[in-house]
Amino acid sequence: MKGLKILICEDEFLPATDLKKQLTALGYVVLGMFIKAEQGLAYMEKFQNTDQFPDAVIMDINLKGNMDGIEAMKVIGEKYGCGVMLLTGLGQLELIEQIVEEKPVPFLIKPFDIYMVHVGLQLAVYQAKLEKQISQLQIEVRNLTTKPNN
Fold first, then answer.
1. Bridge partners of residue 83, in order along the sequence
2. Confidence check: pLDDT of 89 > 80
3. Is pLDDT above 90 for 64?
């Protein structure tokens, strides 16, 4: 899955630039880095249905701006359907239970290991693919059950 397109939403400069450098070295394409969830979502809206749309988003939970990473993850899941992987600091571990109850997504605890990032991205993209397939099957089942009998 090399060549996957990634957005990074991380408000700390050093971890964001280090992550971009390491992802690029592994063959990923980093489309952009944003310090606010709103900026990442605006990018996704602008480039939806283009080749500049990400396969996955790495989203810090605490970001600058009015929206945190958990809220942004919900919007991405509902509106865009691409993979999401969350980043969190050790002080935010209590949020993990909340996240798992909402939607079990891959997450990393800072400081992160780049190979765990790689595994998490693969899982996030695969999960998004499965969720799209499930949605399509649900639509097909609904259509079959609502057709009048001939």
1. 56
2. no
3. yes
Nearest C-alpha neighbor of 65 from the set 42, 91, 39, 88: 39
8 Å CB contact between 110 and 89: yes
Number of domains in the chain: 1
Strands 56-60 and 5-9: parallel
DSSP three-state, residue 121: helix
* C-alpha to C-alpha distance for 9 and 43, rounded to whole angstroms: 11
Distance of CA 83 to CAs 22, 27, 132, 147, Å? 19, 17, 11, 33
For residues 59 and 110, which has the higher predicted lDDT (pLDDT)?
Answer: 59
Instruction: Tell me the CB-side half-sphere exposure of residue 68, using CA atoms within 13 A.
Output: 9
Residue 18's pLDDT band, with cuts at 50, 70 and 90, is very high
What CATH code is carried by the domain that includes residue 142? 3.40.50.2300
What CA–CA distance (Å, rounded) separates 40 from 65?
Answer: 11
CA distance 124 to 107: 9
- In this prediction the pTM is 0.85
The H or E element spanning position 75 is: helix 69-75
Residue position matching structure tokens 């310090």: 35
In which domain, by residue range, is 37 found? Answer: 5-146
